[in-house]
């Protein structure tokens, strides 16, 4: 290859090398095919701990990441042309070089597969444009048990598929509006369980929105944490870590951008909210579960003829619990919305609380909370866990 093409190739390789360093957790590998006449000589580069391994011409060597550009350019000197494929999660960069030209192009994740499926097979799939698309997200959907070996959503997982996709839909605007375009996000999942939503968010933020991200999952069950670690390993999601711990015992000096919690029982949701507030986290998404604390505390004489019925008193307690949580967050300067996450025919625990920190403390909301607290005779755990004047 002539000197002019080699210089241009080195320039492109320098950019690729820096991208690899910046996106180390998302790097998947490099393949290259050097050509001399009609003969082809393949090379392969992959991660091995914090180093790189390169196999070429029957031998394997270890490289520092900042040696990669020079090593590939040196090999290219002896050949007529080279085609290099650099792959990271969601993106492939292709560099083609010969004596006439050096070209670089980027390919995003593959387009959704086209398929002709009988109406009887798709009548139970919502007629919507999915955020987590079959075809693009096959590896993820297969690993978390939603996609079958035939490339179709399993019949008994259609409801779950719709739920996780709707979760992404409900926080998509938050992800795009609350954070800068290229801001690297660290997201904490409290009570992560098997972490299906965390894996889905990881995929969506990194491979669809193209944002750098990192995830931390917390759960007191070592069984589910080990299961989550195994899925992350199988998917090659190196930007995730999982810890066996109670929410209250988790401490970090790392900046957390968002806290999520799905169906954390009773006051565990309050613990997740408090963790977000006390760590000055900008955004949170909570889907509460069973709520006994306020049920045991509250009374309101004007409603006694109604709440003498136990089921009505319990439902009112659920409304009061989530309403109080929202009011406390508003008093702390969060913009709060509460929406229906999934149909109440599937579960009565179907509300999602979304909150984004937008301003300083709101004295009016604080006064309203204190008035309600006194009127209802309640003493919420959430207030005890955070600093509320």
UniProtKB/TrEMBL annotation:
Organism's domain of life? Answer: Bacteria
Provide the alphabetized UniProt keywords. Methyltransferase, Transferase
Ranges for the Methyltransferase domain? 159-296
Q: Which GO terms describe its molecular function?
A: methyltransferase activity
What's in the GO CC field?
cytoplasm
Stretches of the chain forming a coiled coil according to its record: none
One of its GO biological process terms is: methylation
Signal sequence interval, chain numbering: none
Q: Which InterPro entries match?
A: Methyltranfer_dom, SAM-dependent_MTases_sf
Q: Transferase: is it a keyword of this entry?
A: yes
Q: What Pfam families does the record point to?
A: Methyltransf_32
The name on file for this protein is SAM dependent methyltransferase
Organism annotation: Acetivibrio thermocellus (strain ATCC 27405 / DSM 1237 / JCM 9322 / NBRC 103400 / NCIMB 10682 / NRRL B-4536 / VPI 7372) (Clostridium thermocellum)
